[in-house]
Amino acid sequence: MALVSTPATLERAVPAMDNAEVLRIRNDFPVLGRLVNGQRLVYLDSGATSQNPLSVIEAEQEFYEQRNAAVHRGAHYLAVEATEVFEDARQTIADFIGADYTETVWTSNATEGLNLVSYALSNAALWAAQGRGDARLKDLAVGPGDQIVVTEMEHHANLIPWQELAFRTGATLRYIPIDDAGALRLDIAAEILGSKTKVLAFTHASNVLGTINPVQELVALGRQAGALVVLDACQSAPHLPLNVKALDVDFAVFSGHKMLAPTGIGVLYGRQDILDVLPPFLTGGSMITTVTMDRAEYLPAPQRFEAGTQRISQAVALAAAANYLTETGLARVHRWESELGQRMVAGLESIPGIRVLGPAAGRERIGLAAFDVDGVHAHDVGQFLDSRGIAVRVGHHCAQPLHRRLGLTATTRASAYLYNTTDDVDAFLEAVAGVRSYFRV
Asked: DSSP class of residue 156?
């Protein structure tokens, strides 16, 4: 199968987590022992930023205490050690997503990774026009008459870079719409994608709807059209087993801060044969072979896209986060989060005046739920929950077009992770049940 396994298969194949195990896991996360507004912290905002286990915090601290030096630039002992742990981290992340070592590029976050790809594609047209670089650049160049296709449920990070690529190159941007339930209209997707489509970019799992998109079908449509396929894996890489080779995508991105790691580190996966041809996005030191006063020659990937001093300690910490998830078992994490997600949705649907976005209870989704409270603005809902120690996300979640399509300007979103218990979900549901009466709606 293209996905490693389907979530339903995973649920049958892996042993279940339970509250007792999760309570032991919580001991690895210092911040979860805090009180907020005099209440036990119930952290349900991992879809925005997850918390860090001690092993991740200690990995970054240990780097600064024992090995802090510039990588790839020095011959002294600390520089060699720093380079080794930095590149070992790259191998760990490559293994984590089923990629090759040289196909794994460090970025600051997923947003930078998507911008890297979009700018590299517009630079491809410039290089090809001047006869610079590999002859294959002509096939990658985006220009007038070409199509870039996204979906109506995209995070702004996987929409605006493609809007700007269309603006820079004269290409046309189109999108696959959703139906009233929030599912992609694959019938319309089949009509949109064709010989003019150069890029198909879509999210693996929606950060608003909780939907897990049909990657196999979308990739097949992209391959039939001859398009490059770009996967936003921000809400999937931290939560379910991911194998980019098996998925057959050309690029994939995700951010460390959503998968137990620090901020300031992300990953771009790209097929080796494409990365080695694409022009770089950022230029400067560490990504060159030869420089004269007139021009430069560039290294192959991944260094080709890693100009300047890198995020060394963050990369080491991201590898520690990947190891933590691997040791826990991502299939088990996904199964537990699915149970929590179903508990959230079923509970929310039972509360009068609540509209839940995305798949209904009993339908597959990741462990998050965005909802609207009739008569109460999302920001007021969030403040009410915060007064009870419950942390959630409010607003449009960087998905304004999706909210607009569903007739909303903002929602409240609760998102679970491996350190949340059923008690967390129940405390959240009990608090939400009191929102409308508190505001006298």
From this structure: G
Summarize pLDDT for 85-124 with one digit per residue, the tens: 999 999 999 999 999 999 999 999 999 999 999 999 999 9
Q: Is the predicted pLDDT of residue 3 greater than 80, yes or no?
A: no
Tell me whether residue 47 is exposed, middle or buried, using C-beta atoms within 10 angstroms of its C-beta: 0 to 12, 13 to 18, 19 or more: buried
Residue 258 CB contacts under 8 Å (≥ 6 apart), including other chains: 46, 47, 48, 49, 50, 234, 235, 237, 238
Note the pLDDT tens digit of each residue in 293-338: 999 999 999 999 999 999 999 999 999 999 999 999 999 999 999 9
Q: Where are the beta strands (DSSP E) in 165-249?
A: 172-176, 197-203, 228-232
Would you state the structure tokens that stand for residue 319, as one six-digit string?
């590898």
Token code pair at residue 428: 């959240």
Return the DSSP state at 254: E
| Active site annotation includes 234 | no
Domains defined along the chain, listed by start: 7-53+329-438 (3.90.1150.10), 57-326 (3.40.640.10)
- Can you tell me the distance from the alpha carbon of 66 to that of 91, in angstroms, rounded to the nearest whole number? 21
> 398, 422, 433, 439: which is the annotated catalytic residue?
398
In whole angstroms, what separates CA 435 from the centre of its chain?
A: 31
- pLDDT for 2 equals 36
CB atoms within 10 A of CB 58: 14
User: Rounded to an integer, what is the distance from CA 150 to the centroid of its chain?
Assistant: 16
Q: Which of 409, 396, 315 is nearest to 56 (CA)?
A: 315
Return the pLDDT at 13. 66
